[in-house]
Amino acid sequence: MLISSLNNFYRASTPFCAVKPFYAINKDAELSLFTSRTQAAQTLGISDSSIRLCLNGKQNISHNHIFVNAEDLLSTDEDGNKVIDPVKLNFAMLKFDTNPVYAIQEDGNYKRYHSIREAQDDIGCSQGQISRNINNKDKVTYGYVFKPSSEIEIIDENGEIHVDKDLLKKAMLKFDKSPLYVINGDGTYERYRSRKEAAENIFTSLQNIAVKLFRQTTSNDQIFVNAGEIETIDDDGTIHADKEKISEYVKKINSK
Asked: Quick check: pTM over 0.70?
């Protein structure tokens, strides 16, 4: 149900409530508004006592739902109406977290999971494989890099949760497979995450790249250099190419 519809329902229902209304929320952030525990128990097939424990803060989850007093999710809008606050909803959703983890793809897309098990069920790899990736025993698993939420997200001054772009960039370095630079005679250069990526972009063979990296010979006003020879990486994942070393390679190209 859309939040706007729930807001309208809340305003219509509140005057007639004998008890405080509350929301049942599932992992997809779908909300259902109830005006009694009995009503919620019958609708969701959950015991009244479990719902009471959740509302009293003695239990986080029951039957894949969390329960939050409506007033704890509401704010007052510009027109004086009570509406669901997205930030408060985000914080409420953290109750689902047991071991939250991010699954990151090579193109920079990512998805947050409340637990490693949830990631396993969605992606198809085992919890053990995800744990190996998190512990840096494997670089890439099923096409993903996995990171605990604590290592990649931040909470801003408004209380909203965000993925830190620098930390995401650092995590994505795990996709690198023998990264290299192709330096041109005019001083420009390009970094590639793998020899395969370089071969596809400059239309040459993997064997040709391997030979040129080993011999560091120049051809077509280019030279191939392993990334580790000319770059440093900050703690925040920012890559710095050594300009002086690049200049030396440019001189080597132009001296031929």
From this structure: no
